Amino acid sequence: MTSDVLPPDFKIISSLRYDPALAVIGKQRAAKSSSDPLSTPYYLLPYHQERLRNAATCFSWGKALAFLKQDTNQFVKFLDAFIPDDTKPWRLRIVMDSMGTCEVEVNPTTSMDPLNLLLPSDTNPQATIWHVYIDSECINPSVFTTHKTTARHFYTAARFRSGISSLLEQAEVLLVNPAGEIMEGSITTPYFRRRNAAGEEGGPVWITPPLSSGGNAGTTRQYALAEGFCTERIIAATDLVDGEECWLSNSVRGFIRGKIVLMGSNDPHT
C-alpha cells in the first residue's frame, strides 16, 4: 500500500511503558542474552522498533524506515529526552508520519508490580481480573488491523458496542473476523488455555490467535511466543465459554488476568 491512498494525518504508532524497575529485571536477565527485549527501562523496546519498521515497510515510508533503523541504544537516548523524571513510570506513545518525523507523547501511569511485566506464572497471580467481552459484529482484517496506526475507529466502535466507556475501565472486547475467528483484543493480545490437539503430547497449553486471523502483531504477543509461553492456534469465538479464564497483555500494563463474559450472562453492562 502506498501513502497516497491514506488520510493526510495518518500515522503509525506504538505504545509502551517506561519503568525504572525494568533496569533490575534487565540486570538479572543480562547473562541470558545480549539482545534481551527487557534490557532497557522501555518495555520490550526492540520489539517496538521492529513493529514500527514493519509498518513503515508496509506503507512504503522510506524516510520513516531510515529513522527506525538506528540501533536500540541510539533509540533509548532519543526517548530519554522525553522522560520528565526517570525515577517514575510513564506511558509513552511513539507516533511517526510518512516523512520520518517521530513524536513521543508521555503521560503519567500508575506504579505496578514489575512481575506483571514478565510472563504469567503462579508467582504473580494478580487479584485484578478484567471482564472480557466478544464483539457482536465482525471486522474485516486489513493493514489497519495488522499494524498499529492512528486508524483505530473500529476498535473504538467495538468497545462502544460492548459498553466499555473508558480506557481506565478494567474490561476488554475481543474482535472477530468474518470467519468467526478471534483476531485480538481492542487494546490487548488474548491468551486461552486449551488441550493439545490429537496426537500431541503434554497437558493443556496457552494459545493465542495466529496473525492469519487478522490481528495486530503485538509486542507482548511476540515476547510471549519467543519465550515459549504460548503457541498460535485459530480460536473460534463460539468456542469461548462464559466464565472462562484467560490472560491479556499489552506493553503498558504487562500481563493481566481476564474472564470471558458472554453478553446477557453475568454481564455487569446489562
UniProtKB/TrEMBL annotation:
Alphabetical UniProt keywords: Lyase
Taxonomic path: Eukaryota, Fungi, Dikarya, Ascomycota, Pezizomycotina
Highest taxon of source: Eukaryota
Coiled-coil region list: none
Pfam families noted in UniProt: Aminotran_4
InterPro entries referenced in this protein's UniProt entry, alphabetically: Aminotrans_IV (IPR001544), Aminotransferase-like (IPR036038), BCAT-like_C (IPR043132), BCAT-like_N (IPR043131)
Gene Ontology MF terms in the entry: lyase activity
Annotated protein name in UniProt: Aminodeoxychorismate lyase
The keyword Lyase belongs to this UniProt entry's keyword annotation: yes
